[in-house]
Amino acid sequence: MDVTAILKRAKKKKNSHLPDKADTLEYDLGSMLCIDGDFSVEKQDVQEEDLEEIIKKATLENTQLLLNKIFHLETSSEEAGVFVKLPHPTTKLPRTKKVPQPKKETRWEKFAKERGIRNKKKSRLVYDEEHGDWRPRYGSHKANNEINQWIIEKKDHEDLKGYEDPFIKMKNDKKKRVIQQRANQIQNTIRNEGGKITKSMNKNIQGILNSGHNKKKSKKQIDQILQMTQRSTASLGKFDKKLSGEPVFKSRQRRKFQPNIQQDAGVERKRDLNILDNVLTKDTSDLNLNKAVNRYLSMGRGSKKFRKNNARKGRKGGRGRGRK
């Protein structure tokens, strides 16, 4: 029995976390990164099947060395487990995007900075005396909303011209403030871009102008949106689950055209003979006489136009003309 081999195997089994290779790696423990500058494989010396195994073995050994370094750092035990406090990263990784530029000041911010005006941070909630609870300071459900009051007290300096409705005046004043706020936002946007209206800034302006608009769509627009959504899947809505009462839109039938490429002479001859037979035959079973008469009388403008013209001709007299 070879005792040396047995001891070697036992030692290897006991210290399985220690790889056989020498530790020549460069570490960045803050990023949990290690770099092996000595690893190199010549393709001509190694077969393709063995190359993957060599790379896997080197990766496993390097990962084990990295984990050994990490667990030699300061650790702390908590309920969720053992945590390691990583140092600050030393490797500078490139950014995917540009460094964000500082936001330019608005006109009011610039004025407040010059005059030394500081904004006092107000609390978000305000006590509403009418309802007896705390409500938001701003918004549709704000506290002490004057529009929801059933009576408005007239102030001494107010001049209600011609007994103007104070509720309507309050709503109009709010609309003016909203319009002025949007105009100020547009001015700040143009000023930040140096007075030039770019494509991206044009989208921002459109977003400012359209904000707050909740225009109801017509039934036709809703049906068009529903039809587009029904056909937005890969199966064009064929295998989608339908809701109860959801309308089913029929797909348009595509017109069939004869191919432009050269066909078999027999097929083309048979098609031409069928056309000639339909023209010369006296059998009118496939002919819609009502449709043909309406088409002839309406001069090709359709039966609706024909009925409309007949309805006009059938009227006698008119408004204000009296009976003839």
From TrEMBL:
Region annotated Disordered, chain positions: 298-324
Coiled-coil stretches noted in the UniProt entry, renumbered to this chain: 41-68
Cellular component GO terms, alphabetical: nucleus
InterPro entries, per the entry: Ribosom_reg
This protein's UniProt keywords: Coiled coil, Nucleus, Ribosome biogenesis
Composition bias type Basic residues, residue spans: 302-324
A Pfam cross-reference name: RRS1
Localization (cell): Nucleus
Main location: nucleus
A single BP term in Gene Ontology: ribosome biogenesis
Family of the protein in this entry: Belongs to the RRS1 family.
Function: Involved in ribosomal large subunit assembly.
Protein name: Ribosome biogenesis regulatory protein
Organism: Anaeramoeba flamelloides
